[in-house]
Amino acid sequence: MSDTPGSTAVLYDGHIVKLELQDGKWEIVRHRDAVSVLVLDGEGRMLCVRQPRRAIGTDTVEAPAGLIDDGETPEQAARRELQEEAGLDGDMRLLTRYYSSPGFSDEQIYLYHATNLRESRLPMDDDEQIEVEWLQPRAVLEGLRDGTMTGSATTVTAALYALQVQA
Known about the structure:
Blueprint: E1 8-13, E2 17-22, E3 26-31, E4 34-39, E5 46-53, E6 58-62, E7 65-67, H1 74-86, E8 88-99, E9 108-119, E10 131-135, H2 137-146, H3 153-166
Parallel strand pairs: 4-9
Antiparallel strand pairs: 1-2, 2-3, 4-7, 5-6, 5-10, 8-9
Helix pairs in contact: 2-3
């Protein structure tokens, strides 16, 4: 592996991630972009999905989310994920996009707000074990803070936007 300035060596090239070594010292994870969807019901509760996450060895509570497939726009991916994980579809509005962990990864996450909901189910991925829960955004943030829930950047971002939408 070269430590020549401007050099890049591919250490691993998988289905979801590619690990590069730049200039002989910077480990960079190239990761497919992802989407997350904020859904609120008439009582102000936020749609969450509870699912096991192998990387951390526990269940997480998250807003519906997933990777953008080849050929999909972020909005198409958001619709597909909401249909797969919760059996819903709706009008999508992009709230924000952000890097999940820019210190070592180039993954961007697009957060959409779904409104005017209707039932529309697509089959879940074979490896998904998802339980749908409707939770108050403040309860989600409190559970993340006190450790009674485990979440992700998508969970926090969606809950914070939910509180802003309700204000």
